[in-house]
Amino acid sequence: MFKYENDNDYFEYYVIQKGDTIYGIAKKYNINPDLLSVLNGLNDSDYIYPNQMILIPKSGYSYYITKEGDTLDSVINMFGQDKENFFKNNKTIYLLSGQMLVNKTK
What is this structure's pTM? Predict the structure, then answer.
């Protein structure tokens, strides 16, 4: 699971209930199931268990997991954000593959 500098700003916590699935949770919160899995360090084949806690992205933000070849400019342009606001939401940027970056969309 990702540990982010300001978890409470960008995420809610959800406790898995009996019968929950990643796809069902994603549908309930209107988010991409792949993003939900990645944010919580899960693979498609991983099981989730009752009472397990996961992160749910809050609305009003978009999220991106970096990949090889990303540049600061390409990520900022993808978000359609200016550099000043991008740096407010992302205090530490490594651009290593697998880093989560956040953009405020409100």
Answer: 0.71
Q: What are phi and psi of 12, to 5 degrees?
A: -110, 160
Domains of the chain: 7-57 (3.10.350.10), 61-104 (3.10.350.10)
Q: Which residues contact 105 (CB under 8 A, 6 or more apart)?
A: 60, 61, 62
Structure tokens that stand for 30 in this block: 């209107």
Tokens encoding 104: 């405020």
Q: What is the pLDDT of residues 20-79, one digit of tens each?
A: 999 999 999 999 898 899 889 898 788 999 999 999 998 888 888 888 999 999 999 988
Residue 106 pLDDT exceeds 70: no
- DSSP structure class, residue 45: T
Q: What is the pLDDT of residue 3?
A: 47
What is the rounded (10 degree) CA torsion for 10, 12, 16, 20?
Answer: -70
